[in-house]
Amino acid sequence: xxxxxxxxxxxxxxxxxxxxxxxxxxxxxxxxxxxxxxxxxxxxxxxxxxxxxxxxxxxxxxxxxxxxxxxxxxxxxxxxxxxxxxxxxxxxxxxxxxxxxxxxxxxxxxxxxxxxxxxxxxxxxxxxxxxxxxxxxxxxxxxxxxxxxxxxxxxxxxxxxxxxxxxxxxxxxxxxxxxxxxxxxxxxxxxxxxxxxxxxx
Length: 201
Fold this sequence. Notes:
By secondary structure, this protein is an alpha/beta fold. It has seven helices and seven strands; from the N terminus they run βαβαββαββαβααα. Helices cover 35% and strands 23% of the residues.
C-alpha cells in the first residue's frame, strides 16, 4: 500500500485520480468490478447512486487495507429525454449518441460515495450541458481521435469535445467524473480536509 495515501480510489479512471490530486488528496488506486446493468424500472438517480456505493463498498470489502483508509467510489451517467447514455460499445453506438446530443440539452449525473469502517456517505451532482449542432463530419473526425471510446455519453468535456459545449449549468468537475465540491464535503466528514492537505504536503 502507498504509505502516504489518504484514501483508496476504487476506480481506474485517470480523470478521477487527477481531480483528487488537483485538490491535494493523495490516493491509492485500486479498480473494482461491479455489474453496471440498470435494474428494471430503476430511476436514473437511484441507479447512479447505487453504482457509486457498490464500487466503494466492493473496494472496502476486497482491498487489503490495514490502515483502514476510506474508500471512494464514483459513477457518472449521461441522461437525455429519460434515457441513459453509458459508455459506447463501438464507434457506431458512439456516433448515435453524439447525434442524440447534437443541439440538445442533457444532464450529467455523478455520484460519489465514501465507505469507512463506521459509515457510508454519498452525494450526487447533476449538471445540465448544452451541445452545439454537430455536423456528421465533425462527429466522424472526433470519433477518429479515440477520445469518446470509454466515456459516458461518448465525449470528454475536458478534452477535444470542449468545443462542442455551448453552455454548462452545474459542476464542470462533476461532468468530468468527480464533483469536487461534493467530494470535499464528504472527505471532511471522514476527517480529511483537502485544504489542509495542500498546506501540509
